């Protein structure tokens, strides 16, 4: 495809842009789609396996999705929403596996139980309340709970090894949780797209300017970073899916909807295990509670990972303070993002989140000994020499005005779209890649309204069978959908194992409680 006019220009080659490109070409194969990536590799920023948690975020183990109020009640609404949204991603991936657009599922997704683990009486009581509320909803009907040391040792032997029996502990588990290599997923999707006419990928290119020149059309300047040559393109639709780079581009667009948005960058680091014997002994994602003042992306977890086909064991992430919006960005990114329309919200957030800033700086100042000490809360037998530090990706949390015009810091994701649907940008971080399908379907609904009112809805329902219906409300639909996706994606075996063993665990727990 060699043209200066395209139907859709997608900025960034991560999971968001690639998911959108896949949907567009599935819904209308005649569309001319151009993807522009500033790096020389696909999915090398936030989507890369080493730059994100690789967790299929379904709310099974992430305790920050179920906050406890001052009255002690545990709110589960966000967990329900995230779980249902993640099911949408798994439906799309299943359809793409069936159509041959994705390879064997084990090349990008692997069964990895999702476990929440806590210690201390107050935390145990919180986890028990969380479990009691979640288990009564069909989305979480398979969740298990235990305070029994033998059961917990079965679930996570390394975590329980060398742990004293004095302090109460508890855990929940969903056996068919998943580890997702979003980098591999994205590269396979791009490989499929490149086989199709009407799709082009340009690596080593960045968008240096964009402006609206006509009703519903954008003029975009794209620069070749190796030659310095610039080219002007016209596009009916522009999507800014460039991770931390989306905010500066959104500001350049100057659409009214962009006013008032700012960004709060946060960096991350992992401890990576180098001992193959240790790696082989752990098979789960074990999430705990975040430290007071920590951002949600810093919830500690000990993770089995499969990255580029190789098993790994990571602990973290350790957050840090940064002024860069991208891992390969500039230290001036934060300063350059300041505008007259977002200055007040950014100042408000800065003044009202000093504890968070101090926490992030303290994380940066930690020694290896300090980081290993935190690791030992989850892995008592950890040896410092088995672990090395690796840098994870950058995240830019959303700063926006609240209902009173003051600034507030948000830790979710948000779609910002022009009123006429000609441009959209995705801002924020968690739960990010896991809900890419839901986020990009929202782009279609807001930016391609006429096509969605036409034949696209029916086509979309073949890719995502639950489209237009609620998995939160419809238990029968959820059962049908989940059975198909777990089977297609190779996660069904874990589900069967869990169903078989669940009764024994529940009976043991009931006996323990009655005895106690």
TrEMBL record:
Q: Where is the composition biased (Polar residues)?
A: 492-503
Q: Which top EC class is named for this enzyme in its record? A: oxidoreductase
Q: Where is this region: Disordered?
A: 492-516
Catalytic reaction(s) noted: (S)-malate + a quinone = a quinol + oxaloacetate
Q: Could you say which cofactors this protein requires?
A: FAD
* Similarity comment text for this entry: Belongs to the MQO family.
User: Under which name does UniProt file this protein?
Assistant: Probable malate:quinone oxidoreductase
Question: What organism is the protein native to?
Answer: Thalassolituus maritimus
